[in-house]
Specification:
There is one protein chain. Helix content is about 65%, strand content about 5%. By secondary structure, the chain is mostly helical. It folds into 2 domains: about 80 residues; about 55 residues. The strands form 2 sheets. A two-stranded antiparallel sheet has the order 1-2. A two-stranded antiparallel ribbon has the order 3-4. Strand 1 and strand 2 form a beta hairpin. Helix 1 packs antiparallel against helix 2 and helix 3 runs antiparallel to helix 4. The radius of gyration is 18 Å and the shape is flat. The two termini are about 30 Å apart.
Length: about 130
């Protein structure tokens, strides 16, 4: 494919994902004081679909789309890291997501829900380490 075609693919993907994010923000319940970020988006639903939960799944979908485009544009061969197993970008993403879930669960157990953003920063460091050395 030519460079201009890839530019078009990147641009269309960005516009679609931005439109989906705008729709999520628009679907967030409002009160007299403004947007209630933690209110249920679906009243009486079986799951607590709040904006942070929807944003979490949105980010995972964006990652999957990004990694799919990267796999098509820049095919790779598996590499052997510190664990001595062959991994691809997708494998490292899965290891990162799984490890990040455990880091957040451990943070909730030991520190509670306060300062959960610190666990997210810790997960960014973990992700950098996984993509560098695994």
């Amino acid at each position: 494919m030519t460079a201009s075609r890839w530019t078009t693919i990147y641009l269309v993907t960005f516009v679609v994902m931005a439109a989906i994010l705008a729709a999520l923000i628009a679907a967030t319940p409002r009160t007299e004081d403004g947007i209630d970020w933690l209110a249920p988006m679906i009243r009486g639903g079986w799951m607590a679909w709040t904006f942070p939960v929807a944003l979490f799944f949105y980010c995972i979908a964006c990652l999957l789309i990004l990694f799919t485009i990267l796999a098509i544009r820049f095919p790779e061969t598996p590499r052997r890291g510190i664990l001595q197993i062959e991994t691809t970008r997708g494998d490292r993403l899965f290891i990162t997501l799984l490890g990040s879930a455990f880091i957040h669960l451990a943070w909730l157990f030991f520190a509670g829900p306060d300062m959960l953003w610190a666990a997210s920063i810790l997960c960014l460091g973990y992700a950098a380490a996984v993509f560098r050395w695994v």
